[in-house]
């Protein structure tokens, strides 16, 4: 049954407030060592409501004029080699101010490439060590008052800054799980991604960054991020973009929260039966033959997910690498069964029966995924629209499937005068079980700074459909 009104749901409406700058240390950046290079070469007004209440929202007021420039620009890397919460606060304020006061091509005057290198290296070393599916449990949840799950952000920096302030910044008592798609479409994908990496560095066990389908070479070459980086860093743009791609490779694919909640950008995934080709007995590295369009599809296991090769930015659609494609690109359906996602040309479509099977099989009660904004959902009959920033797609005996989308008034650039004007949302999970979603919705921060798009939004498809698979990067 499809419903946007359900059990144990609370909603909130938020009011925007400007961020206040804080002083930054006047310290000189330190360039990366050769071993650093080797690393990459190897890789509100709140109101509770019952299940029958209809969510109410109020518009957020526009931001006031830009505050005076924060001190100590350009941003420097601390001489101690370790960034702090104060450093991240300064980075947030600097990015917000610069979005209104600094032309994109002067971005290195704000964040020199040497500081970029230090930040992305520090984050990448942490991310690459994490498992494909990170488990958030035990001591990590012991002192936590809430877990915040965030959907697509798509370079909408000002909305991201507001969301962080409204939800309460990450800390020892608050965990954040970001569900991918940090870049593309919006004009501040680089700032958004770097800001979240900074939070990851200072709070690696309180901030979890999962990968979205847009954290790939294919999508970023089509939807603007590659061009954005080139514009902002000029002759160093290729270097910065390659470092970002290397960091994308390290982003985990999914998470399990408190043993009860599965989060992933697209959704569930198939099992990969191994069919060795005819070779001499004892021959190593037997080829795995899998037909991605096979009608005999079945749900995969977390053991299979743990073995998937996530380091391939645009996985070949064969063998074990079908699993990352499913996790990042799949969509729910109201039709029963598990089938190839022909609309996107990659991933799966799955019905309520598969949601029930997945939850029951692994002892879960909730699936939280993202991946679909208002443009995609208007083309999906039978499923809820993304007007409020979230939908409850499946309600089954074992639990629920929820889609959350955190980019309000999306996409930033639209070819028509009539905009979707959707709200954004994030989900709060609270102890003791962390499996009862509390929805918080918010409007876009306005006015956005005037900026040119980094992709031809009038000609590029509005949703991630009809992909040119031939342009995908082949396996290496």
UniProtKB/TrEMBL annotation:
Pfam families: Metallophos. Residues 210-215 form the Serine/threonine specific protein phosphatases domain. Residues 20-32, 61-73 have a biased composition (Pro residues). It comes from the Eukaryota. Residues 40-51 have a biased composition (Low complexity). Its cofactor is Mn(2+). The keyword Manganese applies. Gene3D superfamilies: 3.60.21.10. Residues 1-15 have a biased composition (Polar residues). It catalyses: O-phospho-L-threonyl-[protein] + H2O = L-threonyl-[protein] + phosphate. The keyword Nucleotide-binding does not apply. InterPro entries: Calcineurin-like_PHP, Metallo-depent_PP-like, MPP_PP7, PPP_phosphatase, Ser/Thr-sp_prot-phosphatase. Residues 1-76 are annotated as: Disordered. One of its GO terms (molecular function) is metal ion binding. Keywords: Hydrolase, Manganese, Metal-binding. Its EC number is 3.1.3.16. SMART domains: PP2Ac (SM00156). Belongs to the PPP phosphatase family. This is Serine/threonine-protein phosphatase. It comes from Coffea arabica (Arabian coffee). The gene is LOC113698288.
């Amino acid at each position: 049954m499809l419903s946007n009104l359900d059990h144990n749901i609370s909603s909130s409406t938020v009011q925007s407030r400007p961020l206040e700058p804080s002083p930054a240390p006047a310290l000189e950046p330190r360039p990366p060592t050769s071993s650093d290079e080797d690393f990459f070469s190897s890789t509100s007004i709140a109101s509770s409501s019952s299940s029958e209440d209809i969510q109410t929202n109020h518009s957020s007021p526009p931001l006031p004029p830009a505050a005076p420039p924060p001190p100590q620009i350009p941003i420097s890397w601390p001489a101690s080699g370790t960034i702090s919460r104060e450093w991240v606060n300064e980075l947030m304020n600097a990015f917000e101010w610069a979005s209104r006061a600094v032309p994109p091509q002067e971005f290195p005057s704000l964040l020199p490439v040497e500081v970029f290198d230090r930040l992305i290296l520090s984050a990448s070393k942490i991310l690459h060590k994490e498992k494909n599916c990170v488990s958030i449990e035990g001591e990590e949840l012991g002192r936590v008052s809430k877990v915040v799950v965030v959907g697509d952000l798509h370079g909408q920096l000002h909305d991201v800054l507001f969301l962080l302030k409204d939800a309460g910044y990450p800390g020892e008592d608050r965990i954040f799980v970001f569900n991918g798609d940090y870049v593309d479409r919006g004009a501040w994908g680089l700032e958004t991604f770097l800001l979240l990496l900074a939070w990851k560095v200072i709070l690696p066990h309180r901030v979890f960054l999962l990968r979205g389908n847009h954290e790939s070479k294919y999508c970023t070459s089509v939807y603007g991020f590659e061009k954005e980086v080139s514009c902002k860093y000029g002759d160093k743009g290729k270097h910065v973009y390659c470092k970002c791609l290397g960091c994308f490779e390290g982003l985990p694919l999914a998470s399990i929260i408190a043993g009860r909640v599965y989060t992933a950008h697209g959704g569930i995934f198939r099992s990969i039966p191994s069919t060795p080709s005819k070779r001499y007995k004892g021959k190593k590295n037997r080829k795995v033959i899998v037909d991605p369009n096979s009608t005999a599809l079945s749900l995969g296991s977390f053991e299979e997910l743990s073995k998937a090769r996530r380091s391939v930015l645009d996985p070949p659609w064969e063998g074990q690498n079908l699993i990352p494609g499913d996790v990042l690109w799949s969509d729910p359906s109201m039709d029963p069964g598990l089938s190839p996602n022909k609309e996107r040309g990659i991933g799966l479509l799955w019905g309520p029966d598969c949601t029930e099977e997945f939850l029951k099989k692994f002892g879960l009660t909730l699936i939280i995924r993202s991946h679909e904004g208002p443009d995609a959902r208007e083309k999906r009959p039978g499923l809820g629209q993304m007007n409020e920033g979230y939908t409850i797609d499946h309600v089954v005996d074992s639990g629920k499937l929820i889609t959350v989308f955190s980019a309000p008034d999306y996409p930033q650039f639209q070819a028509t005068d009539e905009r979707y004007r959707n709200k954004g949302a994030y989900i709060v999970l609270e102890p003791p079980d962390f499996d009862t979603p509390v929805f918080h919705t918010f409007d876009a921060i306005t006015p956005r700074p005037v900026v040119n798009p980094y992709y031809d939004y009038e000609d590029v498809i509005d949703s991630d459909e009809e992909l040119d698979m031939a342009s995908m990067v082949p396996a290496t």
